[in-house]
DNA sequence: GCGACAG
DNA sequence: ATCTTGTCGC
C-alpha cells in the first residue's frame, strides 16, 4: 500500500497530486538560492500541530537576534483540506501558517521553518514554499530526512555532513547538541546553505532544535490547550 | 522490483 | 503530526 495509507488519514485523489506536482514544478523556477544581504535583527520560527483529523493550529514566534528574546507569539486555528502525503506537506500546512503570519505586528528578516527547504523531491519543501509566498528569506530545519544521502556527522555539537541528492548538496546534517540526533538544515528561499547552517547553529543554544522552531513548537502545545 | 518517505 | 509511562541524564 502507498506510504501515506499507513497513516490514519483519507487517501488523496491521484489527480489532485498530479496538479499539485505541476504547481511545484512551476514554483521551482522562482526559487532563489543566494547569500542573503541584510542585517539580521528579527528572526521568526513557525510550527503547526494538529487537532483531530482536520483541524490545525499554526504558530509564529518572533525573536530578536542574536539575543533570541521572544518579542511576539501569534497563532491561527483552522481546518485542513488535504491529508499528509510526503512531498506535499506545504499544501496541508501553509494556508493556515500564512494566516498566522499575518497576525504578526512586526515582520521578521528571516523565517525558520519546521521541515525541509530545497532538500525535497522537487526542491519545494515547506520552507521554500512559504518563502516564495511571502517573498521572504527562509531556512528549513527538519528532524528527519526526506530525500538524499549522508554520512552520520561526528557526535559533537557543530559537526556536520552534507546531504546529497541527485548529485547536489541540498542541505547539511547538523549536530546541534552533543550526542543527540542531528537536524537537517536546508535553504528555503532567498538563502544559501552556508548562511542557513550558520544561523541554525547560532540559534541552537541549549537544545537540539534551534530556538525559533523550538519555541514555536512549545507555544503550539500551550495554545492547543486553549482551543 | 524493493524500500524510503518532512509534519 | 498523534496516541502514551516511566525513566535515564544533564
Low confidence ranges: none
Helix content: 25-40%
Integer-rounded radius of gyration: 17 Å
Mean pLDDT: 95
Overall CATH architecture? 2-Layer Sandwich
- Counting helices, strands and paired strands, the structural category is alpha+beta
Number of strands: 8
Name the assembly state. Answer: single chain
Summed up, what is this model?
With 227 residues, the protein is of the alpha+beta class.
Features:
eight-stranded mixed β-sheet, DNA-binding, single chain, alpha+beta, archaeoglobus fulgidus dsm 4304 fold, 5 helices, globular, 227 residues
Question: Care to describe what's here?
Answer:
The protein has 227 residues and is of the alpha+beta class. It has a single domain (41-224), classed as archaeoglobus fulgidus dsm 4304 superfamily (archaeoglobus fulgidus dsm 4304 fold). Helix content is 27%, strand content 26%. The chain has an eight-stranded mixed beta sheet with strand order 3-2-1-4-5-8-7-6, with helices on both faces. The relative contact order is 0.17. It binds two DNA strands through residues 3-4, 7-8, 47-50, 56, 84-87, 89, 92-93, 114-116, 119-121, 125-126, 140, 142-147, 184.
Amino acid at each position: 500500500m502507498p506510504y501515506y495509507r499507513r497513516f490514519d488519514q483519507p487517501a488523496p485523489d491521484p489527480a489532485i497530486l498530479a496538479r499539485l506536482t505541476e504547481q511545484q514544478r512551476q514554483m521551482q523556477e522562482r526559487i532563489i538560492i543566494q547569500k542573503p544581504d541584510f542585517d539580521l535583527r528579527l528572526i521568526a520560527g513557525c510550527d503547526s500541530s494538529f487537532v483531530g483529523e482536520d483541524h490545525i493550529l499554526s504558530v509564529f514566534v518572533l525573536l530578536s537576534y542574536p539575543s533570541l528574546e521572544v518579542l511576539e507569539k501569534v497563532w491561527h486555528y483552522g481546518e485542513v483540506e488535504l491529508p499528509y502525503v510526503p512531498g506535499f506537506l506545504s499544501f496541508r500546512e501553509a494556508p493556515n501558517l500564512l494566516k498566522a503570519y499575518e497576525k504578526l505586528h512586526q515582520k521578521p528578516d528571516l523565517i525558520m521553518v519546521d521541515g525541509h527547504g530545497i532538500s525535497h523531491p522537487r526542491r519545494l519543501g515547506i520552507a521554500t514554499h512559504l518563502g516564495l509566498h511571502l517573498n521572504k528569506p527562509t531556512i528549513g530545519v527538519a528532524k528527519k530526512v526526506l530525500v538524499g544521502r549522508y554520512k552520520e556527522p561526528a557526535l559533537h555539537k557543530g559537526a556536520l555532513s552534507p546531504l546529497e541528492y541527485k548529485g547536489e548538496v541540498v542541505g547539511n546534517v547538523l549536530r546541534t547538541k552533543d550526542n543527540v540526533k542531528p537536524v537537517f538544515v536546508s535553504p528555503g528561499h532567498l538563502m544559501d546553505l552556508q548562511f542557513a547552517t550558520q544561523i541554525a547553529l547560532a540559534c541552537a543554544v541549549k537544545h537540539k532544535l534551534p530556538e525559533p522552531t523550538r519555541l514555536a513548537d512549545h507555544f503550539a502545545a500551550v495554545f492547543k490547550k486553549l482551543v
